[in-house]
Specification:
Elements (H helix, E strand, L loop, with lengths): L2 H33 L3 H4 L1 H24 L1 H21 L3 H29 L5 H30 L3 H20 L19 H22 L2 H7 L4 H29 L1 H21 L4 H15 L2 H12 L4 H30 L1 H21 L9
Length: 382
C-alpha cells in the first residue's frame, strides 16, 4: 500500500480515537443518571482518560521507537477495542473509571505512532501538510463523530457509541497492520542504541506547546459559560462553537501548508501572535453577537496554525525519535489543557471572563517568546 493509503488509514484511526475522547462529555448526564451521581462526579471519567493519556504517551512513544510503530499501533488499537467494550459493559461507576483508564492508555499509544508514521511516509516538502490532514481527523471527530455518537446514544442508550467504536477499532487494527510497513526493532534490545536525548533542548521545544494550549483552552473551556451568562440561547452558543470549530479545521489544514512553504518556526510565531491578539480583543469586549462569531472564527484559524507546524518540526528534527517526540508533544498539549482549565477557572471565579481572556493573552505572548527562544530547526539535536 502506498503512502496515501497510510495517511487515510491513520486519519480514520485518529477520527475514532477523537470521537471516543469527545463523546463522553455530552453523555455525562446519562452516565450520572445511570448510577445516581452528580454530573461533576461522572466527569471523573473524562479526567482519568486525559491523565492516563498524558502519562502514557511518552511510554508508548518509547516503545514505538524501540520495537516498531506498526506493532505498537496495532497492539494499542486492540487494547482500545477491549477498553471500549468494557466501557459499554461497565456494571458500576468504578468499573467505568477503570475502563476509561484503559481507553486513555490505549489512545496514548495510537496517536503518536500515527503521527510518527505519517511524518515518515510524507514527502519531505509536504510533511506539515500531511501532519495537518492527520490532525484534522481529531477535529472532525469533535464536529462530526461526537454529534453522530450522541444521536446514536439518544436512541440506543449511552453504552451504544462505545460498542460501535470498539467494533470499528477491530477493522482499524487489521487495516493498520496491513497498510503500515514492518519496521525492525531499533532500540537497545536489537543491539542498536537510540541517540541520547538533550533534555534541556527537549524542554525548550515542548514549552511552547504547553503555553499555547494553556492560553487557548483556558478561554475555550469557559466559552460556553461566558456566552450563557451573557444571555445567549442554546442555538446562539451552538453557532458560536460552530464558527470556532470551522476555524479550527481551516486553521489546521492551512497551517500545514504555510509551514511547508514558509517554515515551521515562522508559522508557529504567526499563530501565537494571532492567538494573543485575538484573546486581547476578546478580553476587551468583542461587541455584537456577529462580531463574537467572526472573532472566534479568526482566532481559531490563527491558533490552529501552531500544532501541525510544531509536529512537523519535531518529526524533521528528531528522525530517530519521531514517535517519542509526537508523544511528548501530545502530553504537553494535554498538560496545557489541564493548566488552562485550572487557570481559567480561577480567573473566572475572581474576575470574570474578560480578565480570563486577558490573562490567557499574556500567556500566548509567553508562548511567542518561547517559540522564538527555542533552538533553530537546523540545530534541533538528535
Amino acid at each position: 500500500m502506498g503512502p496515501r493509503w497510510r495517511l487515510g488509514c491513520g486519519w480514520l484511526a485518529l477520527f475514532v480515537v477523537g470521537t471516543d475522547l469527545f463523546i463522553v462529555s455530552p453523555l455525562l448526564p446519562r452516565i450520572a443518571d445511570q448510577w445516581g451521581l452528580s454530573v461533576s462526579t461522572a466527569g471523573l471519567s473524562v479526567t482519568v482518560f486525559s491523565l492516563t493519556y498524558l502519562l502514557g504517551a511518552p511510554l508508548f512513544g518509547q516503545l514505538a521507537d524501540r520495537f516498531g510503530r506498526r506493532r505498537t499501533l496495532t497492539a494499542c488499537l486492540l487494547g482500545f477495542v477491549v477498553a471500549n467494550l468494557l466501557t459499554a459493559a461497565a456494571s458500576g461507576f468504578g468499573w467505568l473509571l477503570a475502563a476509561r483508564v484503559a481507553a486513555g492508555a490505549a489512545a496514548s499509544g495510537v496517536a503518536p505512532s500515527i503521527y510518527a508514521g505519517v511524518g515518515e511516509a510524507a514527502p519531505p516538502a509536504r510533511r506539515a501538510s500531511w501532519m495537518a490532514i492527520a490532525v484534522s481527523g481529531l477535529l472532525l471527530a469533535l464536529s462530526v463523530g461526537t454529534p453522530a455518537g450522541t444521536m446514536v446514544a439518544s436512541y440506543l442508550g449511552w453504552r451504544s457509541p462505545f460498542v460501535v467504536l470498539g467494533l470499528l477499532s477491530v477493522g482499524l487494527a487489521a487495516g493498520n497492520w496491513l497498510i503500515w510497513p514492518a519496521d525492525p526493532r531499533r532500540g537497545d534490545s536489537a543491539g542498536v542504541r537510540l541517540p541520547a536525548l538533550n533534555y534541556w533542548l527537549l524542554g525548550r521545544r515542548m514549552l511552547p506547546t504547553v503555553l499555547w494550549a494553556t492560553a487557548l483552552y483556558g478561554v475555550y473551556t469557559y466559552l460556553g459559560t461566558w456566552l450563557t451568562l451573557g444571555g445567549a440561547s442554546a442555538g446562539q452558543i451552538a453557532r458560536a462553537i460552530g464558527f470556532y470549530g470551522a476555524g479550527a479545521l481551516a486553521g489546521t489544514l492551512l497551517g500545514g501548508q504555510l509551514a511547508d512553504r514558509f517554515g515551521t518556526r515562522r508559522t508557529m510565531t504567526v499563530s501565537a501572535a494571532g492567538l494573543a491578539a485575538g484573546l486581547a480583543v476578546l478580553g476587551a469586549g468583542a461587541g455584537s453577537e456577529a462580531s463574537v462569531d467572526m472573532l472566534l472564527l479568526v482566532l481559531s484559524v490563527f491558533a490552529q496554525f501552531y500544532f501541525p507546524a510544531q509536529q512537523s518540526g519535531l518529526a524533521r528534527d528528531f528522525p530517530e525519535r519521531r514517535a517519542l517526540m509526537m508523544a511528548l508533544n501530545n502530553s504537553a498539549l494535554f498538560l496545557g489543557i489541564s493548566l488552562g482549565s485550572l487557570i481559567g477557572g480561577e480567573a473566572m471565579a475572581l474576575s470574570g471572563f474578560n480578565a480570563n481572556a486577558g490573562i490567557c493573552a499574556v500567556i500566548a505572548v509567553l508562548a511567542l517568546v518561547a517559540i522564538r527562544a527555542s533552538n533553530p530547526p537546523a540545530r534541533a539535536a538528535r
